[in-house]
Design brief:
The protein has about 60 residues and is mainly alpha-helical. It is built from 4 helices and no strands.
């Protein structure tokens, strides 16, 4: 993983901890791209609960 992706994931995680739906969705997408499906599903669910329509679509694609 390159530096920029790690840095982005760091900030997505911070924003997700602050209950920002888009950040949770983006972090889930990063985790999924690394093969961490369970973590991705968990974060997509959090994003859906926070109101993200895109996360709902992404989660449907995984389940």
């Amino acid at each position: 993983m390159n530096y920029n992706k790690r840095r982005a994931m760091y900030w997505y995680k911070k924003a997700c901890e602050g209950n920002m739906a888009d950040a949770c969705n983006n972090l889930a997408t990063c985790y999924y791209s690394e093969g961490k499906k369970e973590e991705a599903i968990s974060l997509y669910k959090k994003a859906v609960n926070l109101g993200s329509v895109l996360a709902k679509k992404n989660l449907r694609g995984l389940l």
